[in-house]
Amino acid sequence: MLDVKNLKVRVADKEILRGITLSVKAGEVHAIMGPNGSGKSTFARALAGHPGYEVTDGTVTYQGRDLLDMDPDERAREGVFMAFQYPVEIPGVNNAYFLKAALNAKRKHHGLEELDAMDFMALMTEKAKILDVDEKMLQRSVNEGFSGGEKKRNEIFHMAVLEPTLAVLDETDSGLDIDALRIVSQGVNAMRSPDRSFIVVTHYQRLLNYIVPDFVHVLSDGLLVRSGGRELALELEEKGYGWLETAAAGART
Amino acid sequence: MSPVAARHDTYLAEYGRFTKSRGSAAPAWVREHRARASARFADIGFPTSRDEDWRFTNVSPIAEAEFALAEGLPRHAAALVAGVTVPGAVRLAIVNGQFVAALSDLSTLPKGLHIVSLRDGARDETGGLREHLAATFNINAHPFAALNTAFLDDGVAILVTKGAIVETPIHVVIVTGSESPHAPRPTPHAVGVVSHPRVLVVAGPASQVTIAQSFAGAPGDVYFTNAVTEVVVGEGAVVDFYTDQRESEKAFHVANLQVHVERRGVFSSHAFSTGSRLMRHDIGIGLKGEGADCTMNGVYLVDGERLMDTHTSLDHAMPHCTSHELYKGILSGKGRGVFNGRIIVRIDAQKTDAKQTNRALLLSDDATINSNPQLEIFADDVKCTHGAAVGQLDDEAMFYLRARGLTRTEARDMLLHAFAGEVLEGLKIPALRAQIEATLFSALERDVTLRLPSGQDPSTALRAGGP
């Protein structure tokens, strides 16, 4: 599904990712953990194609194609979805209207007929129910005046409607209380399938109690320093990140 | 003699011809208006950048070129009028300053509404026409309005009787142009024609009416429209007024809207401007009675090397009046915008509540805006706020929309629509709104194509900014 090789990314003249190699197969859930500033969000945004993140080296192959060669919108239409860590407020753009445009852009790209307003509303109602999203939220401006929890829930709602092939969740758990976390996780788990993969970026192990990963990777100072099964997350919970950073520093010298 | 003065003479020569030919039949009081205005214009001439009100808008392209007084009915006028038709509306066509019954539609004239061509109305002194024509503004302060008045001849008067609630919108379509670029010109050196369209609206006490004005011309045609519209909003009357300026991109467009609002009258203006090479809008609203309310909103889109100048003036003369003003500019290419918002709160106008906001979105490094709020407050118990903001398209919002699958153009249009939406929402005639929305975005399309040299990353180009 996704093959990342020696990915180096620079943000404003500072190298943040210093050579990431990662392979994600269809149906797998990978967790990327790491301390603040280790480059987790940079990795997520680089995959989504944020123009401020400059790839200086390495390759990313997605479903056999060069992902880095695609514009962010083409990546999205090809099935890559990033749930934002800080969803952007867009006053004046209706949430449902935007989502319909996004879904139809994707359907058109895949040669499918565009959904009309009726069919789209039916789809929205169905997905809103699963994620316990208040339908009033759909008629408001995108993220405007939403609480932190509402924003994150709206991201997962967008994901549920757009049905991506590869979903990258960037710190989706931050700002969620325990009930919201459970609902969001249920939404994600309901979407797990043999042909859909997830990359879950998180600082805390907590989320992984709900979304159980197949693999856990630890990112430190722009490099993946450890990879393992979900037990690695539990180990991190217990010991913190400090010992890894020491290990990473040791590995470099 | 300077070239400006020379052209000034051209207008005066035209004036001489005009008064002896088609203008000769007017009643004496109309001829007096003309003579006063003509003398005034002869005195002051075209404004220059030394005039405070014209500091950023150089009208020498108008003053130095020769425009012949537009005559007749060019063949393309019918198609232009058809192109902006609003189904169900009463349509009034003014072509080259003359009311054209053949292109108008008065088949559904509601009760309480009187429509008359200004020429007939002036001759017959139809109800209130003589009293109100050329009475809402001071020609000394508006050189172009003086020029229009010098050529006062025809146009339309819309008279709403006391208490009449007119639900059918009235759509005034104003077209300027000559037969074709190759047709012989009335004057040998003229670069195009000039028209001086004139509209008078008198809404009687407690009446209600909705009026839209569309300005149009043939694409690529060079001409000069110099319009004056006067509106009198009677006691407790409600007048909604819309302007769609979609002139040829090579046209010169100067328009002056002057409004008097009586006690507890409510007036709203929404102006949408996408056309012309040089636009100057003057909107002056006088709140002349207690408890009057007015809204003055607008959206303008300027690209290429064009210039759009909006000068608004709000005169709070009486207590307990409210005003809301919101202008939004979208500027691209080497487009230039000027916004000057004057609010006068006179000493008697206690409890005034005035709010003015002006926002501009710069889509390129070379676009510029000069924004100037001008508050003159003489009363002490008032609430006046003003705000101006200049910004670019939000990069993060662009990325968010694109990361969900919208193309750059789709994302940009969505953000621009949201930006203009607040003002567009005020337009209550769906057919007109659809026309304006379509024009806003097709106009931009053209500009973006121009803006992108091959090989340039489009996302960088859109991340417009600059110091």
> What is the assembly state of the chains in this entry?
heterodimer
Largest interface: A-B, 32 and 27 residues
In which range does the helix fraction of chain A lie?
25-40%
Ranges of chain A where pLDDT stays below 50 over 5 or more residues in a row are none
Query: What is the count of helical runs of chain A?
Result: 10
Structural account:
The complex is a heterodimer of chains A (253) and B (467). With 253 residues, chain A is of the alpha/beta class. In chain A, 40% of the residues lie in helices and 28% in strands. Chain A contains ten helices and twelve strands. A six-stranded mixed sheet of chain A has the order 6-9-10-3-11-12, with helices on both faces. Chain A has a four-stranded antiparallel sheet with strand order 2-1-4-5. Chain A has a two-stranded antiparallel sheet with strand order 7-8. In chain A, strand 4 (53-62) and strand 5 form a beta hairpin. In chain A, helix 6 (148-162) packs parallel to helix 7 (178-191). Chain A is globular, with a radius of gyration of 18 Å. Chain B has helices at residues 3-20, 28-44, 60-63, 77-83, 118-124, 129-132, 143-150, 395-403, 408-424, 430-451, 458-462; strands spanning 67-69, 90-95, 98-99, 113-117, 156-160, 170-175, 192-195, 198-203, 208-216, 223-233, 238-246, 252-261, 266-273, 278-287, 293-302, 307-316, 322-331, 336-345, 353-362, 368-377, 383-391. In chain B, the strands form two sheets. In chain B, strands 1, 4, 5, 7, 8, 10, 12, 14, 16, 18 and 20 form an eleven-stranded mixed sheet that branches. In chain B, strand 2 (90-95) and strand 3 (98-99) form a beta hairpin. The longest helix of chain B is centred in the last third of the chain and has 22 residues, at 430-451. The radius of gyration of chain B is 22 Å and the shape is globular. The two termini of chain B are 42 Å apart. Mean pLDDT of chain B is 90; it is low at 448-467. The A-B interface holds A 48-52, 71-73, 75-77, 81-82, 84, 87-88, 90-93, 98-99, 101-103, 105-106, 109, 141-142, 158, 162 and B 394-397, 399-408, 410-411, 414-415, 417-419, 421-422, 457, 459-460, 463.
